[in-house]
UniProtKB/TrEMBL annotation:
Biased composition (Polar residues): 11-21, 39-53
Coiled coil spans: none
Residues covered by the Guanylate cyclase domain: 621-755
Official protein name in the record: Receptor-type guanylate cyclase gcy
One GO term of the biological process aspect: receptor guanylyl cyclase signaling pathway
One Gene Ontology cellular component: plasma membrane
GO molecular function: 3',5'-cyclic-nucleotide phosphodiesterase activity; adenylate cyclase activity; guanylate cyclase activity; nucleotide binding; peptide receptor activity
Amino acid sequence: MTGTLDMEDSLSVSQEGSSSFADEHSMDADTIDYDGLGNDSSHGTNNHNATSSRRTHFDVEDNDKKVKKDKKGDKPMLANGKKISSTFRWKLFVIFLMFVNTSIVVIATSVYLDNDAGREFERAFNNAAMTVADGVHHEMQGVTDSLQVLGETITSYCQDTNTQWPYVTLPNFEQRVTSIRKSSVLNIMGFLPLIDTEERTSWEGYSAENQIWIQDSYNALLAARLAELAAQEASFSEEPTTTDINDNTLDDNTSNNVTNRSAGTEYSISPEIVVSTTGQYNLDPTEGPFAPLWQLSPPPPPSKAAVINTDLMSSDSFYLLFQAFLRGQAPSEFAISHVVPMSLYSASSTNDAVDAAEHDVTNPQSSNETTDFAASPQSFLFHPIHTSYIQHHEDPIQAFAMGILPWEDFFSDLLPDDISGIVCVLRNPCDAQAHSFLLQGRNATFLGRGDLHDTQYEASKHQPILTETVSYGVVYTEEDQRHSSRQVSPCHYTIDIYPSAEFSSEIHSKHAVMFTLSIAGVFIGTGLIFLAYVYLIGNRQNKVMAIAMSTSAIVSSLFPSTVRDRILQEAQAEVKVRMSDKSKGRAAALRSSRRNSLKQIQEKRKEKRSKPNADLFPETTVLFADIVGFTAWSSVREPTQVFELLETIYHSFDEIARRRKVFKVETIGDCYVAATGLPEPCKEHAVNMCRFARDCLYVMEILTKKLEVKLGPDTGELSMRFGLHSGAVTAGVLRGERSRFQLFGDTVNTAARMESNGKREKIHISEQTAEQLIKSGKEDWFEAREDKIIAKGKGELQTYWLHNKKVAAPMSEISDGEDSSVDIDYDWLDLPTELFDSNRSKMCLGTNEIRQCLSEQNQRLADWNCNQLAMLLSNLVAHRKIVLEHNFANGTSNQEYEESYMRNAHVGVGDSGSILKEAGNTVDMPLYDAKAFVEIDDMPVNLNERVQQQLQDYVSIICSMYIDHPFHSYQHASHCTMNIIKLLSNLAASPNHTSFAHDESSGRPCATRDEEQGRFLYEKTFGISADPMTHFALAFAILIHDADHPGVPNSTLVRENGRLSRIFEKRSIAEQNSFQCAWDLLMDPGFEELREAIYASNEEYHRFRQIVVNAVVATDLFDEELNVARQQRWDEAFPKLNQKIPLPESSLGDIRDMADRKATVVLELMVQASDVAHTMQHWHVYQKWNQRLFHEQLKAHKAGRLEEDPCDYWYQGELDFFDTTVIPLAKKLRSSGAFEVCFDEYLACARQNRTEWQRRGQEIVSEMEKTFEAIAMGALSSRMDLLDDETTLHDDDTTDDPYKRV
């Protein structure tokens, strides 16, 4: 049945399972994990039910511990109990049977195939042995044919030229013999004339005179080699390859060297016939005949030329062969010697001969080396050469054709590639020698002397006989020492062919193992299919169970236990009806539908529909909590930051609610709604809710201060206001597409009005809640509010403030010892660990004293600014590292980077004076580097501790430079820094930049998406988005732009003609002073490592300084000359649409210059927008900073430094500022094309703020003036008290209905 469940069945099972799991009265509390909520039995049934209503999830990982009902016996049993265990045992039994059957079949098949493998082995070896035998005879036939052709060639030459024996030298010997030699496996061929004793002297003279054949042979070899080289070079030019042709061919210099030097080389052949005097058969070395080596192919190198004229007749290895031919005792025209351990010289190919010649010509000192030994066994073959073609007993032998046979080459290429492991043992009966070879496909390997085959395969031996050739041994007695009495006996070489273990394993692996594995694979595959089927069925069952459990968990978290039980019971009943209808079948359903009219069906549905799931709870306390200042705060934050704040705060509130037995109803935006006294009645509902509110207020204060380090300015100023009211509420599930548990009634509305009429950091309670506290003996917890509030539909109401003392252990104080079991230790709050990193406050280099002088808020802002700059600086260092690695990988060296890394601490030190002459210069943006763009995220760079510490010190000192003005303060600089970072993120995160189409129709490889995206952004933002140096420089400039600001306009500083006015030539005095103070501090020797991280070359230093200068000077919005120059740069970089632009006649350089000018203008606009960002943000953000600037200038006026009273011109001045500066600035940034989204919002906010200011500005100016007078008279002790004022701080969302407000 499980395998046929459809989606409807799954839902039904999940709902049914949820209902059974959710039945608290039939559950064992120890078997269910409710996230630790139900283990406190001291609070009784009510607390247990209240706890169960806030259960968030079941432990779905351990299904075996869940409990459900048995349908028949109505007894608790494990979900994977007897039935599932029985199924599991049946599965194991089936698997066991399959294993036994597979084993039996595999063993039987293996035995049968092993027997058959023996027969197959014999057949395979017989075929392989016959192949080897046929190959041996074929190769030997080729060898004998080659010797016969050589002999006939020499005989033909002698007959044609009437040359007398033995004085025969075959012209063009190398050309004639090379083709003959290559047709066989012989590596050297030649002939040996027979020299009688009386002809010896004349032969020695003849050989000395006619040794020029050696030079001619080498010239022929070299010509062939050069032709081969030319052909190879031609093929390489047509098909380029990375193979070095010099590995197998001679280059031109080497060829010329060999040609020129070998032409004049004297080949020192033996001047006389060299006769061996150590032989045991030839007793008289002076007697002939002699058989000296004469013409050879390939010819010997100069170092081995002495081999010519060596008499082989006197060698024991060949004496008996020659005697058999000379006496007429040879049964064959071909004879083969014993296996000899040496060769004449190493010349197995033409290349080897040429290489040997080159070596001897270029290294004459090595020409006296001894004869080298052969790497493998070889034998000499001889064929007699007669005077004429017609051979008879009277035709004497005049010479012998000779060839050297390497046995390893002889046994090669006898087998196909797929046959290996054949052992051949070469035997010579004359001397009882044996040599073993291993044949592996076409390769043959010499194993060693002796019979080395595996003796277990002795019975499988095959033995072909080489009948084409014979070897000779001596037959005589030791007493008979006379030359004429020695008799020779012919011997035929034999080859014993054996299989090996390798050959046997291949035969078995190809047959028996293959079939056995095939049979086993079939059974194993069948078993795997069965297991896969079992797994899929089990997986489906687990999914159904998981759905049921998750459904129960979701219902438990959304609804109270009583409501949850009703919902699950209704779902169970509906499932039963569906299952019964389904069991009737389709035909029955059709018949039933025909019988019942539509009206009857509708009536039945109405009867089945249950009543609404709702209840009246007469004794409850409802809480509304709202974050004060959240709307303005969130308007200048990224969405992720907004959600991070809400998740952190509300997660902490949820933990407090869980421990305080408070039921969380919902969160609506930044409004938190909770209730006590439901779903289970509770007499202390008002007391519990007051404790909950005070805990939340305390935690809120901690979190906002800690989060300010991470989320930026103004976070620490956020707070809560609470509204509580006690009374009856109607609560239940409002059914629909998205059912929710909701509260209704006058109590809810009154609680919302308590919150909206409250104040920050205050818990506002109604008179009814105060009465409940008095009943509980908590009359000292609250005090009456001085003024009465007017609530919509309620009239005047007397309300109260709940005392909210800030103590280290608030819960113990609030409970007054009455309920110590619920005291809370705030260490359990799951807060981000980075918020409590104490290392952020550690300072060095003597800046501890400076940091201690900072206010608590400025310390948090300094930490936040340090974090932002550190992040940008890390990207800058990583980008630089990638670019350097890329340059080195391309083979380019950047000397300036390498040298400046060691010397950049001194770059720029001493730059001072007016900076206006530097302002406005074009910033050179770097070229796009695709590698850096793609790899920047994969190369995190952690700044070293020295750099981090110096950055922290620098930011703290900059903070101390700011004077505590209302507007030009460190708080405003941090606000500007936050806005410039937001602009940079919007610059690189436009929605149009996130989708790119690939050209799949083209066969050419296209760029990756990341590279394409990077190039698009680079061109769209004129290079700003791809330059981390620009990002860091902008944030750095914004942070320092108001340092040491005197608190009065530049016009006042010029009029006063003070020290700053004289130094900076009466222009942009405050801005230049801020820059110079911050720059001189950066150039201090104590910040050397920080400077090395910021810029690593002169080019980077000048770019960094240029960007900072332009940015700081750009904040002077009222200098007429600067504004004229800025407008001119804007018109040049971004001409009007209707203005015709002449096309550039040149180069890419002009396009780059235009892009750099646009980037420079956009950077200035971004800085200006960040400086006045409050005018383009939420109305309350604008009002906050507008009021501070007004107070700052009014203070200067009262002190006599400002002639005009701001109260007289402030209203109209703000309107003019919007019209001439703010709105045009937003339009320019939108028109630049670098920003596609955010400046639409900025422009809209600027226009809305102007409209609101035009409507209410005069009234607001009057209120700001009264507030300033109150501060001056001491009525408001601090600016924070000013922020507490309801008229300035409350959001617009002050409607009575919290749902409408959200």
